[in-house]
Amino acid sequence: MWQRRGEIEITDKLDLEKFATASEADVWARRGREFLAERRWLLASQALRMAHLFYEADVARAFHLQAQVDVVHTRMRAQALREAGQAFEDVADKSDAYDKRIQYFSAGARCFLEIPDVPKAASSYVKAEYFTEAAILYRRVAMFKEAISIVRQYADRVEVPASRRIFYVSKLFHFRQLHIE
User: Fold this and answer.
1) How far is CA 176 from the centre of its chain?
2) What is the pLDDT of residues 38-97, one digit of tens each?
3) Which residues contact 7 (CB under 8 A, 6 or more apart)?
4) How many CA atoms lie within 13 A of 56 on its CB side?
C-alpha cells in the first residue's frame, strides 16, 4: 500500500557481484530455489539465470510480473496483467510437464480475464483444456462461432447445461440477425 503511493521504496535487488565470488551453478540453483520457496520471485529469477536454468527463471519472472500487478499504478494495471499473462503463456508453451502447462495457461487466462481481454482469456482456457470456461467466455462476448466450435469439438468435456445454453443463445442471436435484415 505504501509502495503504491510512493511513500516507500521496496527493493529486492540481489548484489550479484558479492554473491558471485566463488559461486558455481549449483550454488546459484540452490539459492534460486530458496528464493522461489520464499516467493521472492525477482531474486529467484536472477539467481536461476546465473545457474543457466532459464526455464525456471522464466517461471519466477512470470510470478514476479503477476505479483507486480498489485503494486503498479492503476493506469498501468492492464499492461502489467497483459505482461504477466503473456509470461505465463510463454512458460506454459515451453513446459514438458502436462500439469504445469495446465497451471500456467490457466494462470495466464486469469490475468487476461482481469484486464478484461475475454477472447485472449478464452484462448488460454482452451490451451489449459478448460473447455466449459472457454466456451462460456466466447459466448459472453458474442463469439458464437468459437463457442459452438469448442462445444462440438469437446462435447464430452463441456458441461451439458453450459453447452445447451450456448446453443440456445447462439440460435437466438442468429435468428435475431436474420430478422433484422
Assistant:
1) 36
2) 999 999 999 999 999 999 999 999 999 999 998 999 899 999 999 999 999 999 999 999
3) none
4) 20
Residue 48 and residue 80 in contact, taking contact as beta carbons nearer than 8 Å: no
> Which of 129, 138, 141, 127 shows the shortest CA–CA distance to 163?
138
Of 27, 80, 82, 36, nearest in space to 60 by CA: 36
Sign of CA dihedral 148, 152, 153, 157: positive
Per-residue pLDDT tens digits for 21-39: 446 899 999 999 999 999 9
Residue 130 DSSP label: -
Nearest-angstrom CA–CA distance, 78 and 84 = 10
**pTM of the full structure:** 0.81
Q: Which three cell numbers stand for residue 110?
A: 486469469
Nearest CA to 14 out of 51, 55, 45 is that of: 45
Of 153, 66, 52, which is closest to residue 114 (Cα–Cα)? 66
